[in-house]
Specification:
about 525 residues; five-stranded parallel beta sheet; four-stranded mixed beta sheet
Length: about 525
Amino acid sequence: MAIGWPTNMLAKVFGSALHGVEAFRITVEVNVTNGLGYTVTGQPDEVVRESLSRAEVAIKGLGLRMPRTKLSVNLSPAHIRKTGAGFDLPIALGILLASGQLFDRQQLSDYIVVGELGLDGSVLPVKGALCMASQALADGMKGIILPEANGLEAALVEGITVLEATNLQELLEFIAGKKAMEEKVAWKYSPTPPCPEDDLDFRDVRGQDSVKRAMEIAAAGGHNILLYGPPGVGKTMLARRLPTILPPMTSAEMLETTRIHSLESGPAPLTRLVVRRPFRNPHHTTSDVALTGGGSIPQPGEISLAHNGVLFLDELYEFKRSAIETLRQPMEEGKVRIVRAKASLEFPASFMLVAAMNPCFCGFLGHPTIPCTCSKRALEYYRRKSSGPLMDRIDLQVAVESVPLRELMDSHKPAESSAVIRGRVVKARAVQSDRFKGLNGVYCNARMPEQSLEEYCLLDTRARRYLFGRLDSALVSARSYSRILKVSRTIADLAGSSTVEVEHVAEAVHFRGLERLVEGRKKAAR
C-alpha cells in the first residue's frame, strides 16, 4: 500500500436512480482499504462502471490523488439497477472522503447528489432531475445538489433546497465550508397560466358543425374519437384544434406530465412546467417501441409523452398492425407496462386518442356524389388492418365531409371560438369530477368503470326503448353498448340533464358512423 493512505475508511454519499418515472435514493458507499483493484457493485450498468475513469481524470485535474490501493464502490440497495452517468459526482465525492482528502462538515448527509463529470471537472446535466427532486422531498432530504443546467427543472418542486454545481472544484469548496452555493427557489420559476386564446382556434374552421360538436363531446368526456372521410376535407386541421378546447391542466397534472417529459431524450433539460396539454403526432412509420416506450434503457414512448393530453394518429391504417395493437392495454388501463428480463416498470399513459383515416383505399366510401371503386375484398382487407377490439375502444366515429365552396368563402358567418366551446367543456368536466369524487383514478365519463354504468347512466323509458331497438336491428353492435352509454352520459352533462334522455342516446348512436357505414356496405354487397 502506498505510504500515507488511510486504511479501511468508509464514506457514504446519497445519489438517485431512475426506474421509469420513479426515483430511488441510492447510498453510494466507497471504501479504501489494503489491496489492489477497483470494483463497483450493486447492479451498475457499463456507464456507471466507467464513472471511475471519469472521476479519476477529474480528481487528478484538481491536483488531488486517486487511491492506488483497493477501492470498492457499492450502490445500495443492490436490487435496483443503476444506469446513466448521474453517479459520477457522488462517486467522486465518496472517493475523496474515503481517501481522507475531503472532510464532510455535515454538508452532504442531508442532500441527494447527482451529476455527470466532464474530464475537466465540469458537472454536466442528467435526465430526470424533476423526478429525483420529488423523491428527495418525499424521503425527507433537505435538498439536492445537481448540475447547473438542471437547476430550474428541479426547482419546480416546492419545499426542497436546490443547489447548482457548475464544476467539482466549486462543490468541494462548499463542502469544506469555504464557499456558499446559491439556492434556487421554486416560486421564482412558477409558470404563468397559458393564454386562453391559441394560435389554433375553432373559429377559423368553416362549416363542419357536426364534427365540431363531436369533438366538443369528446373533450367533455375524455372520449377517444376517429375522424374518417375523403382526403383533403380537414381531418388533420380539426384534430390539431382539439387541445384548445380541453380543460386547463391542474397543478398535479402539470407536475406529473413534466416528470415524464424530463425523462425524454432531448438537447436541453426542462426549465419550466408543462402547462399545456401535450399533443403528440407520431409519423405512421413509428416503431412499436417508439410508440409504447422501451429500449435497452427503458424510455417513455409517444403514448406516455401524450399523458394528460392528446395522441393523434394521422392515417391510422398506415400504421403497422402490431403498433396499433399495442395501444389496446394502455387505452384501457391508462398506463403501459414494459417488461424486461431484469426489470419491469410502468409509465403513465392516460391520453385521448384522436385518429384520422380514409374510409377505404380510394377514400370515397359513403361519399354522396363520388362512388367508391373498392371491391368487397379490398374493403374487407382495409378493415382487417385494424382489429375490432381497438375500434371498440374508440367512442366516437365521425364522418368528415367536404364543405361546399360557397360556405368556405362566406367569411361573414360567425363561428364559435375555442374559448366559448372550452367553457362548456369545463362546466361538464366539473359535473363529472363531482360525480366520480369517490372513485380513485376516474375523472371523466370515458374512464367510468363498467360496473358503474347502471348507477350513473340512468336512461329514461323512451331512451331505453330506442337503444334496445337499435340493438335488435343490428345497427348497433352489442360490444358498442357501453361506449354509447358513456357518450350519452357526456351529452347529457353538456345539456345539464341528470338523466340520459332519448335525444342524448340518438346523438351518441349517430356518432358510431363508421360502424353503420361498413355494416351497410356489407349488406349491399350480399
